[in-house]
Write a structure and sequence with these properties.
Layout (H helix, E strand, L loop, with lengths): L1 E2 L22 E7 L4 E7 L5 E6 L6 E2 L16 E4 L8 H11 L16 E3 L14 H9 L18 E2 L9 E2 L1 E8 L5 E9 L3 E3 L5 E3 L11 H7 L5 H6 L3 E8 L5 H18 E2 L9 E6 L10 H39 L10 E2 L2
Parallel strand pairs: 6-7, 14-16
Antiparallel strand pairs: 1-17, 2-3, 3-6, 4-16, 5-7, 8-9, 10-11, 11-14, 12-13, 12-15
């Protein structure tokens, strides 16, 4: 058991017109709103397969090799998205401890070994740089995991996120955690949870700016246009703005590990649709894909190719929608906090009870 205050209650309006997580999946957050950091865990059902696609040039990760189509393991026991930069990877130890206590993991002669791939966002420039998610905080995120539409906005791994950092973090737009899901005509559900902490702007479906650098009058400015006009690099903002967009696609479709890897790759197009510029040398963009379907995937051929095209098309769409939702929900939550005069205080640190 963990004795902790894991996450602040949701203050953003619930999303009522969106499918919940695919059956068997759970998501939990641990949030320190005072220090503006946290972590988010995805707990899939037993037997889930997984894949990953890495696009950014500045990633911080753990155990991604287990998701390779050539790796022996079929999939992960959990996936962790965490703040704290590379320091935050320690939160995966707490996730592994929580899983081991419940007999979840890769079977070995010495007992189960949980496999917890993880990726980080850089939030050390926000709040308190010395406060980062660790093992107890990862454990606490697992304790809050639920099968409902996850809490969104300035929570979990998105508690210290920002987007549109070309002119520095002080002129950026708040980011956070977002979620989107849809049900396919064939009956499967595809969902995505994303952490928006990009160097670039977040773009709405119609091309409007949702999150970008702010000008002197508070207006949003397009980074792509500013970059084209700059005679030299903005050294200060480049040094202080470490960035990442993370996403995890979840589905109850029938996919093997190869299919998950292909779906993760196609879903990365969702980042490029919602973020501009994307996949830069100063971004650590990573997309996970987890599939829990119990039926065998189609045999190689036209049917299998079409299934991947259909699933990948929708995966990219929900990934883009989740990124946009992250910025929208961060704005809604912040406005509500200001309206009610809410000031975050440090949470009680998680501790394991004997």
């Amino acid at each position: 058991m963990a004795d902790c205050l894991p996450s602040l209650p949701a203050r953003a309006p619930p999303m009522t017109d969106m499918p919940p997580l695919p059956n068997g999946f759970q998501i939990g957050h641990w949030t320190d709103a005072h220090a503006r950091t946290g972590c988010t865990v995805v707990l899939p059902p037993r037997g889930t397969r997984g894949g990953v696609d890495v696009r950014g040039g500045g990633t911080g990760t753990r155990e991604l090799e287990v998701l390779s189509p050539l790796a022996n393991a079929e999939g992960p026991t959990a996936v962790l998205l965490t703040g704290g930069s590379a320091f935050g990877l320690a939160a995966a130890d707490g996730v592994a401890r929580w899983l081991e206590e419940r007999g979840l993991g890769q079977p070995t002669p010495a007992g189960v070994v949980p496999l917890v791939p993880a990726a980080v966002v850089f939030d050390l420039a926000e709040g308190e740089s010395g406060t980062r998610p660790g093992p107890d905080e990862g454990y606490g995120a697992c304790e809050t995991a639920a099968a409902a539409v996850p809490e969104r906005g300035r929570v979990g791994a998105g508690a210290g996120a920002a987007v549109g950092k070309l002119l520095g973090r002080d002129r950026a737009t708040l980011g956070g955690v977002g979620y989107a899901a849809t049900a396919l005509g064939s009956g499967e559900t595809i969902a995505a949870i994303a952490v928006a902490n990009a160097f670039g702007d977040v773009i709405a479906q119609d091309g409007a700016l949702l999150g970008a650098p702010h000008g002197d009058s508070g207006e949003l400015l397009r980074s792509a246009e500013l970059i084209a006009q700059m005679p030299e690099p903005p050294y200060l903002s480049m040094r202080s703005a470490n960035n990442t967009t993370l996403a995890c696609v979840l589905t109850d479709a029938a996919l093997d590990k190869r299919g998950c890897a292909i779906l993760a790759r196609i879903a990365s197009a969702g980042i490029a649709r919602a973020v501009n510029p994307a996949f830069t040398p100063v971004d650590g963009d990573v997309v996970f894909c987890l599939a829990s379907g119990s039926e065998p995937p189609p045999a190689p051929g036209l049917e299998a190719s079409w299934a991947l095209i259909a699933l990948g098309t929708v995966a990219a769409t929900v990934t883009a929608a989740a990124i946009r939702d992250a910025v929208r929900q961060a704005r809604v939550r912040t406005q509500l906090d200001e309206r009610i005069g809410y000031t975050p205080s440090p949470p009680k640190r998680c501790r394991r009870l004997a």
